[in-house]
Write a structure and sequence with these properties.
By secondary structure, the chain is an alpha/beta fold. The chain has helices at about 10-20, 35-40, 50-60, 90-105, 120-130, 190-205, 220-230, 245-260, 295-305, 325-330; strands spanning about 25-30, 45-50, 65-70, 80-85, 105-115, 135-140, 145-150, 165-170, 175-180, 210-215, 240-245, 265, 280-285, 290, 290-295, 310-320, 335-340, 345-350. The chain has a seven-stranded mixed beta sheet. A seven-stranded mixed beta sheet has the order 12-11-10-13-16-18-17. Strands 8-9 form a two-stranded antiparallel sheet. The chain is elongated.
Amino acid sequence: MQSVSGSALPNSHQALLKNQHLLSGSLAILGVTSAQLLLELPCGGLAMSEHAGVFAALKRHESWNACFGYDDPALAENRYDSIVVFLPKARAELEMRIALARSLASDNARLILIGEKKEGIGGGAKQLKAVAPQASKVDSARHCQVWSAESIEPAPVFQIQDWLGWSRVECSGVSIEVAGLPGIFSQDGLDKGTQMLLDTLAEQPVEAERMLDFACGAGVIGAWIQAWSVARETAVVSVDGIDVQSQAVICAKETYTRNNAVGTIFASDGLAGIEGLWPGIVSNPPFHTGVKTDTSMTEQFLRGVRGHLQPGGELRLVANSFLPYEALIKRHIGRVERLREDGRFTVYRAFREL
């Protein structure tokens, strides 16, 4: 098998390869961000990613048991001698990920935590030592730290429902209950961009009998649209949702169930894996990957959204005003107008030309 260039891998994955001597027995890796890592490891095992695109790539490696997120049924099976935890973006998510790791551990298992210094591995190490005081730093490599805890104490079966929380958000006199998990964008309440988007939807609703919420997060937009229609005693439209992250998909389904909303929630890395046409598409897309500004997902979405928007259908999108989306919307969909802007956010509306 041809070796993958180390430079093609994230720093944390390179740091693991440098410390393969720490791995023994059956192996589980949590938080994989590049499936190329598996090509460099001689053994199989369990590999979990929260990213739908990475998960799809993991599934192509037959000697590995690929898992999508924290509620994959395969995570309840087997016991592992070595569990690698890659540092997630959110501190609260690391606590959840370590709990999952401990639920997968065999007796006398080793837990290995790896993360970049600039992304907070120092604080992550403190979280690890809170449950495994014997943990120690074993290496600094590729701008990362590698921590190891031998003979970690196994934990009870991991249940994602134990980490689920609820909050109430309100806009234009209509409130809904929203599910939250560590690492979810909407967990800290309704953000200003979504608030502005919902305000425009209340004032100028999208005229569509069926809609799609791209990058739906915890399902706020779709659930609110339907709750607003119920409150106004107008026809309720189904709103499908799509997101790339496992926690978002879990939360969106829970939010829809709690608020009696109707629609299908898809896990997909963009629109490429989704079939269908919608007369209305709404979105508050993210523009960060970790700590870096990254508009590539939204730019890809805007290039491909025409193929999923019915002729004459409307796209309604909110974004930070400094992002270069207006020209892309005009180029790929049609004439674009700004429904509202406040210097920080802008709500765009465009209709697909016939």
